[in-house]
Queue: 3 jobs
Job 1
Amino acid sequence: MPIKAFSAAKGRLGAVLDDQAREELVRSMAAHVLAAAAPLAVCVACDDPDVARFAESLGAEVSWTPGLGLNGALEASVARLAARGADYVTVVHADLPLASGIGVLARTDGVTIAPDRQRRGTNLLRVPTSVRFTMRFGPNSLRAHLDECEQLGLPVEVLDREDLAFDVDVPRDLVELTTRDGGAP
């Protein structure tokens, strides 16, 4: 799980949340996703000491990846886990406040992808470590990851699940989250 420095994460929410509230939201969502990954062992890719302490306090291993950027940090972390015997690695983002059952997803041959609600981004990506899979997170990552699977000849299962599709990136996502089930923003 890649986690950006809490103080730098979710800057687009700055219009509706002050820095402290934004950091608390980010920590809360990350803790939720970590819990949803049980019973899998979790490794957090980060380059921030506060994030590392947070991850370790919740029982996660830390993959220290300064200066590699998101995709580089993930590829380095996957390589470390593969060297230690992992056959598959699940990459999941920390901004999925409804996520559930990540650790018990059905195992399939090939790649499993859970796209975001717009079907442009990738919120979860499960890949075999036996192939060199190039991480392509960023704009239009779903298409890029599907193209990578095609290039590598890997079968793909796309999971269309609301709990894995709902991420919090912009103020309207936060409003939708807080008003679910009749709540007030």
Job 2
Amino acid sequence: MDQRLALLRELERTDEAVAAELAETDELSAEVDALRARALELQRFFACLPDERTAAAEAVAEADRGLTEARAGAEHAAGEEARAEADGSKERLAEARRFVLRARDALHMAERRWTSARDRAAELDAHAEAAERETAALGARASELAAALLTRPRFTGDAVADPGPGAAGVAEWGTRARAALLVARSQLAAERDAVVRQANEVGAVVLGETLPPLGTAAVARRVERELHAH
């Protein structure tokens, strides 16, 4: 094989290898970004959780008091109705029955508020438990990615060392890993540009003309056709 074509073949293989590494780096960056974004969301959730739990507990306590009062009001209204029936006064009985209806409406509203407050508190607890599990899963995945990155020569231990505990640890690790991946991508892009530029320079010499920007494979095909033609 002509040495110039052999060089272009080698540049083409190098270009393919760098392109594959670039694609892998982009995939890793996308996953790290997603992990970091979710960890930040969880970090904000846990930061607000104590206040939300306090508010939920206060709402339950208030709903408990309201329900107790409404039940007492309903019992009192029922007693008034019974006394009005015993009294025999139609006017008093009509008023007592209106009182009973209002008391029942108040009780139903108090029951709904109590149920809603209890459900909200239970949902918050369930959300917190799910967030804890998700945080553990994010930490495990971040550790896996950190170990994978440490096997690559472009990444130092400080840049991608294991994440700290909790959502905050994953978010901080994501910031470090993201920065390291951006640097690696920049290096890879520069390397690929250099390879493509060298291939175009070789092609221009062989073909005796200035080439438009071409990929290494396209340059190798043109040079191969030119050499075979001669």
Job 3
Amino acid sequence: MNGTQGKSISPAHRCLLLTNAEAPELLDVRTPPEFTNAHVPGAVLMPLQDLTPADYLKRHQTGAPIFILCQSGARARTAIERFQACGCDDAVLVEGGTQAWIDAGLPVNRGAATVLPIMRQVQILAGSISAIGALLALIVSTWFALIPLFIGSGLLFAGMTGTCGMAILLARMPWNRFHSECLNLSRTPERS
């Protein structure tokens, strides 16, 4: 059983906590372009690939909940598992992530999207590589059929585990990282 299943909150319930003067921490573990495109008001950007729970916990008040969300929940669950591995049980999953928040009609801050969302980049890259591999298999050699087989296997693995190697690789590309440096979004405010 996954340790993240016990602590979760609906987007609507979390939204009610936004009105509280001492609103609990809300950590968004998506990529900078995803965050810039649309994010929950008050969320702090900390991309999953940059998340170091031990460092984050140095500024965290023990016992106070850390609400974590991503686009739909998979990356947030991974982040929660990382916090749990550091001995922190304060992490709470925002069910359904940012997409569920938007679907519920709750307030979001929207920016100008300058980069495609990571999953669209994955779809474009995987589709392109597969199509080229299939075309080469038809024209040049049947050995090129291994390319779409490899890509398809990777997508199957991603669907089954919630971990997409291509998305992780794309998130590290310069066009997906520059926003956090320019906008200074990845810095967590100090707690008093």
